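Run: sequence + heme C -> complex structure.
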Amino acid sequence: MKRSVTIILAAALAAISGWSIAQQVAGVQTLRGADTAAADQAPDQKAYAGKKPGLQKPIERTFKEQPPLVPHATDNFDEITVTENQCMDCHSLEKYREKKAPKLGDSHLAFSADGMKKVVTMDRYQCNSCHVPQVDAKPLVDNTFVGNIPPKQ
Ligand code: HEC
Ligand code: HEC
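>> structure
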């Protein structure tokens, strides 16, 4: 029963498209354009568009509540561990003035357990899961994204 339904469907499809079933099968291609057994070609590794922190302007946000994009390169300091978070060396409440860096978002802070100071909340600790540095690369797929922030007058 199932098989006959499949055959009828395939025949109907062939009739609609004007292609024979054989032609349709022959036209099937892999999306990555390579034989299934071939190893994937790794894309070129590109350098970040920004240089070291302190030399860039912020990148304009394109939608409300967007995590701002990281305008500087993050080579050498993007490894965030339990004991070390170098983003905080510049963006924390204690350091941002001295490092002339933007202060991390107020929404990222909560009172410490003893209520004596403000600390970064753990759901905001892994900075680079939301804030990403940029490379000048062709988009992988076309898209029709438009932001929702009106241009400055
Ligand atoms: C050595 C200091 C330093 C370190 C380390 C650093 N930053 Fe920055 N960051 C800056 C400065 C300064 C700016 C201002 C733009 C510029 O000059 O590049 C900035 C800008 C930013 C911005 C843009 C903010 C906005 O309002 O547009 C984000 C987001 C950011 N950094 C995230 C990060 C993350 C995530 C890390 C860790 C991977 C990090 N930064 C590590 C100094 C630093
Ligand atoms: C869960 C996503 C998320 C994580 C994780 C996160 N951020 Fe953000 N960040 C945001 C969003 C969204 C905004 C913009 C709105 C806001 O302030 O909440 C922002 C804003 C900022 C700003 C600009 C603040 C301003 O007032 O314009 C800085 C700087 C920043 N974050 C740094 C950091 C650093 C450093 C860390 C890691 C300790 C971090 N963020 C972790 C989502 C995140």
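>> summary
Residues 53-56, 58, 68, 70-72, 74, 77-78, 86-87, 89-91, 99-102, 127-128, 131 surround heme C (ligand 1) (CB under 6 Å). The CA atoms of residues 83 and 125 lie 11 Å apart.
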